Amino acid sequence: MANPGHSAPSGCRFNATATLTKLRGSLPAAVGRQNVEIDPTPIPATTAHRRRASISTASLDRDETLAEKISDQLDHGEPVKETEETILYLAYGSNLASKTFRGVRGIKPISQIGVFVPELRLSFDLPGIPYLEPCFAGTQYRDVSHDGDDGDDDGYLDSNVSEKAALMGQTQREFYHKRRWSRPLVGVVYEVTLADYAKIIATEGGGRGYRDGVIDCYPFPEDYDSSDPVPQHPSTPAFKARTLLSPAADDARIRSQMQRGGALVSKPALSWWYTIGLHFRPDPDYAQPSARYLNLIKTGAAEHDLPVSYQKYLAQIRTYHITTRGQKAGKVIFMVLWVPWLLLVLTLSKIFAGPDGRSPPWLVAMANVLFSGMWNSYDLFFARVFGNGERTLSDIPV
């Protein structure tokens, strides 16, 4: 059921595994553990030779089934060994921040390079916990057919877009601040060992939460200055990198491949236990990220000296804030009611996790049912009685 006060133009089913891994990744800061020391040695730039190697048909970077192969290996108790083979991995969310990627998750990049990805846009469509972490970052495919027609030099949607939307029967609600960026996704490609990539899959829930995919990335030109606009049309050679797409991007991924005439890659068949309790959010664009979570992305963008215009875009995204006594009371009651169960599932996931860090089927089903019950209680009771737990009240359109 949708929250009172907003419509539901589109839907998104999500699995609780990805949300659990996000929450688990934030626990060290939440419980006051000391931060892991990060090696201050500068990370070298990924060489042109390594980027060209990613195009080879024999490259692991292009292997569409690599994540499944690693998962199968780890499910049988066989650790992924350190080898000379490396993986190029595209980060776009909290993994941009060294505190998260190199600290909490313990990844040791071999090299890195800033990139832009014309096919993708940043989204915040992975549901989290109402009143606390309303949503997390993901990616969606963007429409590149109108590049150059819908934004200004800094990459923001202009007023003409609103007029076009009105003519099409859409409302300004479709253009929340987190959807104002019109240019390609900006991120960082890390070169990591196969063993570290297996760790990324485990900590991000790839295969059972996010979907592992291969995408074309473009390095910024050598003479590019961070104060310049993000290029709309690439002038540098593309290379292949792996990334974790949000669950809602699966269908768009298949449609995009069909439109490009590429080989059709079907979605993996889901076992019956995986589908138990899958929850439905009526409008994946509705929720706002927390200030804590968005700050990780902004900090990472600054650390990598990503384009100033993109950093400005991140800075203007409105985060969720509690503004009424009712919301404060609702948060306390909601946390008292649901946090013990969340902590129980997180504890069980650590106890019963397999070699790859993933939970067994029965625990995934249990987590799905828990999150479904949590969000249903919010939609049917808490949002009505205590107030909005996804968007700041002042940001709700009328």
Structural features, described:
This protein has helices at residues 16-30, 48-53, 66-75, 98-104, 159-167, 194-204, 250-259, 272-275, 291-303, 308-316, 325-352, 361-385; strands spanning 12-14, 86-91, 111-117, 120-129, 133-141, 185-193, 211-219, 239-245, 279-281. Helix 9 (291-303) packs antiparallel against helix 10 (308-316) and helix 11 runs antiparallel to helix 12 (361-385). It starts with 11 loop residues before the first strand and ends in a 13-residue tail after the last helix. The protein has 12 helices and 9 strands. The strands form 3 sheets. The protein has a 5-stranded antiparallel beta sheet with strand order 2-6-3-7-8. Strands 1-9 form a two-stranded antiparallel ribbon. Strands 4-5 form a two-stranded antiparallel sheet. By secondary structure, the protein is an alpha+beta fold. It is an enzyme of class 4 (lyase). Keywords: Lyase, Membrane, Transmembrane, Transmembrane helix. This is gamma-glutamylcyclotransferase.
